[in-house]
Every structure is written in C-alpha cells, then in structure tokens.
Amino acid sequence: MKQVWSVIRREYVERVKTRAFILSTLGMPLLIIGIMAVVGFVAVLSEQSERQIALIDLNGQLGERVQQALDRAGYDVELAAPGTDTEDLDQQVLDEELEAYIVLDDTTASEAVFAYRSKEPPGGVRSQLMRAAIVEEVVDLRLGQLEDGDSVRRLFQGGSLEYEPVGLDEAEAEEAEAERITGMITGIAGGIILYIMMLAYGAQTLQSVLEEKQSRVVELVISSLRPWQLMLGKIVGVGAVGLTQVAIWIACVALLASLALPTLIAAASDFEELAQFRQYLPGPGAVLLLVVFFLLGYFLYSSLFAAVGAMCRNLQEAGQTQAPLIFLIIIPFMLQMMTFQGNNMQWMNWVALFPFFSPIMMYPRAVMGDVPAWMVAVSIVLMALTVWGSSWVAGRIYKVGILSQGNRPSPRELLRWIREA
Amino acid sequence: MTQNGTVVRLSGVRKTFGAHTAVDDFDLAIEPGTIYGLLGPNGSGKTTTIRMMMGILLPDGGSVELFGGAPDFARRSRVGYLPEERGVYEKMKVLDQLVFFGEIRGIARSLARTRAEEWLERLGLSEWASKKVQALSKGMQQKVQFISTVLHDPELLILDEPFSGLDPINQDVLEEIVLEEKERGKTILFSTHLMEQAERLCERVCLISRSRKVLDDDLKELKRRERTGVVAVEFEGEAPPVATWPGVSEVEEAGDAFHLSLHDGVRPEEILGAVLSEGVSLRRFELLEPRLHEIFVRHAGEPAEDDAPSQTGGAS
Fold first, then answer.
1. Rg, chain B, Cα only
2. How would you class A58 by CB atoms within 10 Å of its CB: exposed for 0-12, middle for 13-18, buried for 19 or more?
3. What are the distances in angstroms from CA A289 to CA A26, A282, A285, A292, B315?
4. Model ipTM?
5. b or e along B200-224 (b: 16 or more beta carbons within 10 Å of the residue's beta carbon)?
C-alpha cells in the first residue's frame, strides 16, 4: 500500500507541476475574466466622447425627463433652449462643435421614435441605451395619463407562469420549487463535472500508461510493484489532479461571486433574496451522491482507458482504440442535454440505468427528483458491479499489455490475454 | 549478506514466441557470492532468460526458482534488476526519480534520498541531481538507471547488458562497482555479448547460442580445459628456426612472437630444452590461454560478437 501511495504521489506531483496543468487550470478562469473585461472595456471606450451631445425638444413634454434619463444611462447631454434652430445645430455638428443631437418631437411622444443627427452612426451600445431610456420615459409619460397606469406598467415587466402543484399547500410548494431549481443547477453542474473528469482525465490515464510503456520505464517499475498497484496508483493520482483542477475552478467562481456579492446586496434592496440564494445551494446529500457517482464513473472509465493505453504502441493507435470509450461518454452527455432542454421522456430513465451512461444521466435525474429512489439505488449497484468486472478485465489487459511490445492485439488475442493473465 | 543455497535455478526451461523458440531446455544454477556471466550474441535468448528469472515472462516449460522458490513479488524485491530496455521518466528530476524508485522498492523516503545522493556523488552526477533526466546524456541516464537498481541494497543483481552504451571510463567505473558488490557478498548475474568484459569480471560463465546453452562452467576451469597447447615465445635478437624444433607441429608469426602449436602429448616444458640448446635468450615464454571468444566460436560455431541478426519484437 505504501508503494501505491508513492505511485499516486509521483503521478500527482509530476502532473501538477507541468506547464500544461498550470496553464489550463489558471488559464481557463483568466481567459473568461479577460474576455469579459475586454468586452466591457471596449464598450466603455466606444461610449467615451469628447464632444458634447445636444437634445432639442420640439414637443415640449419630454425634454427634462429624457435629459435625466440619459444622464442616468451615462450620457451628459445639453438641453438646447426652446426655439433653437435645427439648422444652427446641424452647422455645429458640421463644425464638429457638437458630436450629435437628438430631436424629440410629436412622433417621439406618441411612438418613441426619435432622430439622432450626426456625421457618424451611433454604436450598438449607444443605440440600445438611448432607445431604452427614451422608450421608458415615453411609456411613463403615456401611462401617467391613464388611470390604471401602474397595472399596465406591471404588464410591461412581463407576466409569469406560476406552477401550482396540486395537493401541496403554499409553503410546501415553495419548498418544492426551490428544490427543483437547486436540483437543476446541481444536476447541470454535476453532469458537466463528471463529463469533464471522465473524458479529460480518463484520457490522461491512458496517456500516462502509454508514456511508461513507450519509454520502457515500466519494466523498471514493474519489478518492484504488482501491475494492479501501478494501475491503481495511476488512476488515483490522475484523478486527484483532476479534482484539484475542479476545486480550483470552483474556488475561482466562489471568489468572483464573493467579490460580486456586495454589489448583489446593494442591488437587492431586501435581504430576503440573499437568503433565497442560499437555499439554492446543493445540500450534503446531493454532494455525497456526486462523490459516489464520480468515484464509480471515474474508476469505470479510467481503468478501461488504462487498459487501452496498455494495448497500444503509440498515441495514433490509442486514438483509434479509445474511440468506443469516448462515444460511451459523449452519447449520454448528448441525451442529457436533451433532457436539460425539457425533453425528458420516461424511457430515458431506463437508459440512464445503463452503467456506462449512469454517471452523466442518472446523477442529474437523481438530484432533480426525476427518478424514484430505487432506480438510483439500482443504478449505483449496477455501476459498482460493472466497475468490479471492468477493472478485473482492465487489470488483466494492463498486466499483459504493458510489457508487450508487439502489435495491438486482435479481439481474439485480447480474450486470450484476459484468460491467461 | 550471504545466503545458503542456490540463488537462481532454472531447470529445463523453454519459452516460445509463436513459431520462434527463444529459449530451449535451459538449465542454470547460480550460487551465492559469485559473478555470473550470461554470454551470447544478440537474439540468442539472454534477455528472455532473464525476464523469466524476474517473473516478467512465464516459461512454457520447465521451472524457474529464485531464492529457492517461485519468482513471486516478495522474492523479486530482493533483486536489483536492470532491464535491457532502459526507460526513464524523462521529465522527472534525477533525484526525485531515484527517490521514487527507492520508495517503490520498499525503502523509506529519507533513506532513499540519502543513498541516492551518495550514489550520485560516487558516479559523478551530483551536480545533475536537480536537473530533469532528459537533460542528461544517454550514458548518464544509464548510470541513473543503474543507481535505481541498487538503491535498495539487493542481495542479487541481475543486469541485462549493463555495459552497452557506456564509454570506456564509465565501463571501468561500473566494473569496479560490480566487483565491490561481490566483495560485499552480493551475487551478480549479468548478460553481455562483449566477451572481453566477461573475461575480466566473471567467475563463472554460461554461453548461449541459438536459444540453447552451449557451455556452463567456472571460467578458469574452462580456460584450462580449453587450452590447445599453443606456446608463445619471443626472443632477444635473431630468432632461431623454431619450425624445425622437435614437438612443434605448426608455427604462426604474431609480430615479434611465434605461436608454436605442439604435437599431441608434447609438454610445453620440452620446448625450453630446445631454447637452451640453441643458446638464444628468451624475452617471453607463455602458455597461451584461449580467449573466451575463441572458446565460444569453437563451441557455437558462429561469431560471438555483435553480428548475429537480432530477433524482432524485443523478445530476444
């Protein structure tokens, strides 16, 4: 066991130290933050203007309201004195004293259509912000003239579908709704984590096995270790690297969220919403279940990936040989995406029982409460049995494969390896 | 550390790869405290034999015993094994790699580190300890691999072609270490296709040719037995007519010396009589021992040097 520990440590330390790991781990969040920052910066930059924008109100009702609204949107506009000649303003634009001016007239007051007169067309951000500000003011103005203006205004905020579960009282219903949303978030996040871990890190196990085999260092190692010890150490070591990466990413998200939290608190006028936010966090049960599905799914696939690595002579061969495994991971992910989009069909629950699909398909179903508990239990038992069987097979292929320098075995030879190892 | 009883014993071992028989009907016994040489051209079955000793390959027939039992994990851990195909973790640092190997061979991390540092010092690699292995030359990598096989102070060293790829200076260093380990009571088995190396180091040799054992004997004994009765003489000044001397069947000139083949039953001392009667003064008078190479050729009927075709698949 001490030796397995040494293998795990070597695998972990040597991988975490590599440039590829550091780049992919830190690079991903940095890249996302970077892209967001650049987009924001460009937007702000394009809105900076040295020259003045003017506003002329030919209708006489909107001028000050619109000036204030544009001010709130970040545009400092000068309200031209009533009776200013538009030809005069045109001249100022031509002389580049003004960048642009906005004309509010009767059509604006009725339909929120306004002119933006300039030598250059406005950028996308500016069009959107100005249009939104002016539409809102016009709507307000028109609603102010109505008796039941407030109710109409609520209409504009969009109605909503309110699901009312039959047979539950209000408190229970609220709780069920919160649970559903939590399940959804946990299910999607968990599914994606499982997918990445099995696909990316399963494949890394393959690479690690292949490297040792190709460099022949395995013969030096295997004289002191049993093959299964080496294989187990590798799988655990590579898995730990993957978990480290996921943990760093989650920590980054948490850090960003906590930096954004003061803004959230400021934005949310009452603390109720924050408390609501907390109730969407996954409970210990969902986390425990994720760990169970992760362990079973990762072991299932990485042991098979290790066997593929042991069978092949080089990466090209391995690329072809691992294809069935890759499909076994991608297919349930696609099916699960359909489910997330709301196309959940009952028979898919049975598909999710297929052990190779279970991690990605059964876990989200379990946390979203889409399947009965007995199905989850059966799925875990089936997966455990499959892990037991596949690791036995993989271990035997691995044992023979790592020391064989010949051609990739045919299916028949593979059976012989498994029988005779 | 000495043990009683045979360290390695092969009885009637046979191994085939498809239609090719790599080792056939092979017997071998290595007694503790000896340096044993496994000699033969490439592809003659040396590596296959060694892999069977290490339990990496299972024989198709016959039995393999290590320390008096099956080459199981516990017994293998008492062996320091240097495979012919020498891999390294190229991206690991030298010292880290050695500590790792020490650990998986069952010694504590701190001890592994101390010993690795001592060995690196000894082999002149100290300044490379924190470099990545891929920065080292092939020869240096080979020394690192050697250290990794002796780090856990094994009772038996099984070295497959340990000298190939080393420059003469490092070959000497390795020879010296092998002799020292023997002095410390270790048993050493190494394979080589270089007969000179074997001649200098081995106490006992086993010659393999075409998957079969040809000879297996004490080296001194073997040489005495294989002596062909050739006498080398060298004279000060003018050489006498050696071909006419009684008892001499054939004369071969070798530089300043003459190699005299004697008739059967003629003792070398009888030549001295002729020398005395000629009144010439002698610079050298030597009973020529056959070189291992010649013995090999005589028994195997093929050159023992590195020109036999090697088998495919690394299963030589």
1. 23
2. middle
3. 28, 11, 6, 5, 48
4. 0.74
5. ebbebbbbbbbbbbbbbeebeebbe
Residues A414 and A397 sit within 8 Å (Cβ to Cβ) = yes
pLDDT digits (tens, 9 = 90+) for B65-88: 999 888 888 888 889 999 887 788
CB B45 within 8 A of CB B211: yes
Q: CB under 8 Å to B256, separation ≥6 — which residues?
A: B234, B283
B56 interfaces chain A, CB cutoff of 8 Å: yes
Q: Which of residues 10-49 of A touch B (CB under 8 A)?
A: 10, 14, 18
- The token pair that represents A383 in the structure block: 């997966």
Question: Which residue's structure tokens are 């300039």?
Answer: A118
Q: What residues contact residue A207 under an 8 Å CB cut-off, 6+ apart?
A: A309, A315
Task: Tell me, letter by letter, the H, E, C secondary structure of A153-188.
Answer: HHHHCCCCCCCCCCCCCHHHHHHHHHHHHHHHHHHH
Mean pLDDT for the stretch of residues B179-200: 88
Q: Do B56 and A403 make contact, defined as CB atoms within 8 angstroms?
A: yes
Query: Which tens digit of pLDDT belongs to each residue from B35-46?
Result: 999 988 888 888
Q: Are B90 and B132 in contact (CB under 8 A)?
A: yes
Q: How far apart are CA A157 and CA A398, in angstroms?
A: 62
Across the interface, do A220 and B101 touch by the CB < 8 Å criterion?
yes
Q: What is the DSSP letter of A409?
A: P
- Cα(A351)–Cα(B286) distance, integer angstroms: 88
Q: Which pairs with CB-CB distance under 8 Å and at least 24 residues apart come from B298-301?
A: B298/B226, B299/B207, B299/B209, B299/B214, B299/B215, B300/B40, B300/B207, B300/B209, B300/B210, B300/B214, B301/B209
DSSP string, A239-252: HHHHHHHHHHHHHH
Mutate to test the interface with B, among A6, A16, A208, A223 (most CBs of B within 10 A): A223
The tokens for B145 are 């691999």
Q: Count H helices, E strands: chain B?
A: 10, 13
**Phi, psi (5° rounding) for residue B271?**
-65, -35
Q: Where do we find the tokens 């991206």?
A: B91
Residue B236 CA to residue A116 CA, distance in Å, equals 121
Question: CB count, 10 Å around CB of A148?
Answer: 8
CA–CA distance, A78 with A81 (Å, rounded to integer): 9
Q: What is the pLDDT of residues B274-287, one digit of tens each?
A: 777 777 888 888 87
Nearest CA in chain B to A219: B83
From residue A213, alpha-carbon distances to A305, A401, B88, B116 in Å are 14, 9, 11, 25
Among residues B145, B8, B159, which one has the least CA distance to residue B75? B8
DSSP state at residue A225: S
Owner of token pair 């494949």: A203
Contacts of A182 (CB under 8 A, 6+ apart): A279, A280, A281, A282, A283, A286, A367
B85 contacts on A by Cβ (under 8 Å): 216, 219
The pTM assigned to this predicted structure is 0.73
**Quick one: DSSP state of residue B231?**
E
Report the C-alpha gap between A50 and A46 in whole angstroms: 11
Q: How many residues does chain B have?
A: 316
* pLDDT for A265: 58
> Which tokens hold the place of B186?
């270790």
Instruction: Name A411's Cβ contacts closer than 8 Å, sequence gap at least 6.
Output: none
Distance of alpha carbon B31 from the chain centroid: 15
* Interaxial angle between packed helices B292-300 and B219-226, expressed in degrees from 0 to 180 and rounded to the nearest 10: 70
Burial pattern B274-289, b for ≥16 Cβ within 10 A else e, equals bbeeeebeeeeeeebb
CA distance B116 to B123: 11
What is the three-class DSSP state of A101? strand
- The total number of residues shown for chain A amounts to 421
